Amino acid sequence: MQRADLEGQNGQTASQSSGRRALPVINNLKPQKSAQELAIEEELRRFESEQRAALGLDRATTHFTDPNPQFFTREQRPKTTVLVGGLTIAHDYLISATLAGLGYRVETLDNPDSSALQLGKEFGNRGQCNPTYFNVGNLVKRLNELHAQGLSPKQIVDGYVFVMPGACGPCRFGSYVTEYRKALRDAGFDGFRVLLFQQQGGLKQVTGDDPGLDLNPKFFVSLLFAIMVGDAVNAIGYRMRPYETQQGATDRALEDCKRTLAEMLRTRSNPVVALLQCRRMLRSVEVDRTQVKPKVAVIGEFWAMTTEGDGNYGLQRFLEHEGAEVDIQIVTNWVLYNIWEHSWDTRQRMTLRQDDNANKGLVGVNAQQKLATLWVADKGLRLIFKSIAGILGLHDYYMPNMDEVAEEARELYNNHLRGGEGHMEVGKLVMNVKHKKSTMTLSVKPFGCMPSSGVSDGVQSYVTEKWPSAIFLPIETSGDGAVNVYSRVQMMLFKARVAARAEFEATCQEYGVTPDELRLFIAKHSRFSSPFFWPSHRVAATASDLVHEVAPYMKDPLHGVKKVGRRILGLFSRSATASH
Is the model's pTM score more than 0.85? Predict the structure, then answer.
């Protein structure tokens, strides 16, 4: 304590001896602003207030809600144009002709391109997938063109409607229709009618006492018929084009064919006559199927694998340009899959202790009658498509057995899981490898597609481990990066070409024939050189199948007669066994 007193005294003595005066502390010292500075601040506040009012920043936050415009009445039909788009070029063209034949004003949208993608990204939300961006942007692009031609936004909203497919499920597809309406609002076409066609529920958006679309059996049958005709045209085109001897001959014949079929659908004339006319047009295309080309099966997300343009980097034509034959997935197969879903779900529900009353439950439903109806629908659909294909010249076209596809995928992908292609992607790859249906499988889907890239691709890695000979390539599309995609495809195509060539040479050695002998024999027999001839499936590449089909005739001139005789004996044998 004495030490503290001494320190205090020493401190006081030092302060006094220094001769300095302690300065007072002045707090809150602020410089005075000039009149000019105050005026500038006032001007800034006024400008900020004006801009906030102009941008609506002072209003209460309101989130976007889908007004779901549903009005399209019969009275509006004569002055309302239905815009059609979203499938392949052939499908959109033929569906438009069908609707015109049913009395609607119709316009076919152009195939979505990169400019449509940019508009889709400009007016759409972030995180959407390619089909949304491309198709939303394509619609906005067309409406902008109409506006540039002199139509006001109100005239466009009142005079046009767009019909699109929709669905629920674990992917972004369920929100497509809302994305359309949100983008159309932001693009200046608020209230534009987007009518939603549910995959398994009909046209949900068209309601009222007097709807503008007649949702009767005639409408649906006509639409389904146009889809099957479009499938047959696409399938025969992809069969013939890789082997044409004159470049562009197939496309020219197909254009004439599509015009003929569209006129038939528009006038509702005899389809058999139109299909026979198309057959004559296609017969003029010369083909050489001794060309060894790998067969590439394109599977994946529905829109990405079927569209034919910038949406999937034009992969089908790119593959053909690189010397491959493309095995496409037709839209009719998707309809068959929907029928299978209902049949399989019904059989599963029949095993419950009591009928469930869920959305698709069996309360009040005759399950056996429902299964019989679905069986007839499946067989009828196959019969009609086979008839269309046969008249057109598309012979021996394989339509998948959906129970077989489900069984192949069952241990790898639960058949209960839905969304996207469900188990079909996995099942298709397994069948392509096990049954040598293709040399290479290319799975294409939008970037971040959960059912396809998030689930199916993960399972495919196990498939490729189980069958190391499988040549499988998954591709995600984002609208850009085409060079990277092409590079990856080319690397895998090199393996596929090597495999196809080895398969062809082994087949020739098996029968003891040379490629030159094969070509000479085919040139002398018009049946085998016909653009409609298609060898029976035995191996992956078409050229190898051709050797299996033709070589026995080269070795034995009576092979054809013996083959017919064996078939007749087989029919009698099966008939006798059945009666026994």
Answer: no
